[in-house]
Automatic annotation (TrEMBL), chains A, B:
Binding-site positions, substrate: 40-41, 62, 157
UniProt pathway annotation: Amino-acid biosynthesis; L-arginine biosynthesis; N(2)-acetyl-L-ornithine from L-glutamate: step 2/4
Sorted UniProt keywords: Amino-acid biosynthesis, Arginine biosynthesis, ATP-binding, Cytoplasm, Kinase, Nucleotide-binding, Transferase
Source organism (scientific name): Winogradskyella eximia
Lineage, broadest ranks: Bacteria, Pseudomonadati, Bacteroidota, Flavobacteriia, Flavobacteriales
Enzyme nomenclature, EC number: 2.7.2.8
Chain ranges of the Aspartate/glutamate/uridylate kinase domain: 4-241
UniProt-listed NCBIfam families: argB
Name of the featured protein: Acetylglutamate kinase
CDD domains xref list: AAK_NAGK-like (cd04238)
Amino acid sequence: MKTIKIIKIGGNIIDNEDALATFIKDFSTIAGPKVLVHGGGKLATKLATQMNIPVKMTEGRRITDTETLDIITMVYAGKINKNIVAQLQANQCNAIGLSGADGNTIVSEKRPVKTIDYGFVGDVKKVNTVVLNILLSNNVTPVFCAITHNENGQLLNTNADTIASELAIGLSSIFNTELYYCFEKNGVLESVEDDDSVIENINTESYKALKDNHIIFEGMLPKLDNCFHAINQNVQKVCIGKSDMLFNTNNKHTTITK
Amino acid sequence: MKTIKIIKIGGNIIDNEDALATFIKDFSTIAGPKVLVHGGGKLATKLATQMNIPVKMTEGRRITDTETLDIITMVYAGKINKNIVAQLQANQCNAIGLSGADGNTIVSEKRPVKTIDYGFVGDVKKVNTVVLNILLSNNVTPVFCAITHNENGQLLNTNADTIASELAIGLSSIFNTELYYCFEKNGVLESVEDDDSVIENINTESYKALKDNHIIFEGMLPKLDNCFHAINQNVQKVCIGKSDMLFNTNNKHTTITK
């Protein structure tokens, strides 16, 4: 089986024009099949402010109502996705921008209402690899925004980290799959303030201890849960760190193992 | 060679939720390879107003500046394109939404500045059929918004009628190509006020006479120029009318011939 790299980038790259241009140039040089997944950064919030659409919160959680879903679709699938694709093309990477609706690649269901109704937020149910495999076999690089659909015509806002892990799991039936979460830090840190305090390896056992000792908390928990979900479902390699880890093997980062 | 239908829809369908739902349902039943091209309708202007971004005009012509290009990219490639794709998927049509940057399908160049600088407006230079053919051979239906790129990272606002004719011409090397322009009238009319006064056939000779007699004028001229451009470059069939012409052969419409 060929090896594929699924690479997720977040706001620290998306929101910085120079960082994005550098990343895209480097990403284009990666040999072999690859998939890019991008988050939304701060642009959606900026657009909502410009349009005078308030951020909707319920019990401290952000809600995706119809207007917010429209904004997300415009910013993620429109502005960010198409500009990334155009820049990849300029770097001779034959990219194609996708939401989960395109090619029916990622099917999700609206998150069930328990105490909170999150609105148009989707939990991934299924990744269809048919169209993805056709594209990848023809050296076309899929670029995913964080939007999926429910097969009944409804688009759904979906966590970009989850999209990356589910794509990696789905593609593991036809590729050796490597999943890279790029963010603003060098990896999972012992001490949040010290970017050199990278924990280079986390396994199921040490993860439990790191949680119990409150060294890993808050926003890192869902990211790491996505990592362990992937590594426990046939993904061969899962790494977290700065995007430099992809291009410089000496760059410290965190590797997740079973 | 197989026959492919390239179908362009405009604002009268895009701006009307029920009309769009009906069209999508009908479009999904069309057998064989097909491509949908959609215009933008009124949503871009609405968003610009909401964002307090004025429409830029020079010498009476609309200009696509950076802010306007962003709006167009968000509305056309984001909101409209992804919602159409999701609805097509709900009707078992395996659609994939594309700009000309995606798969490097449509390359354009920024319109040269003569008396007017139109801004980020692209004139189509080339249609690349490689990725399109891969998708179409696998029963995937491309859905194009009216945005192209220049292969140097720049997205460009491009006339949707032109995109449809250039796609039809480009695809004519691998398919028998039929091009359908759907709009709010039954076809090219003898009298603008009378929707029954359809001119059922226009050829190069009668087109000249219709122009000379000012029966065809203004907005219809670029549309018809696109039609003749297509029919003179290997497109087998070019029709203009209400979208009903696709589904009901008794429906009057205009056919363009050499």
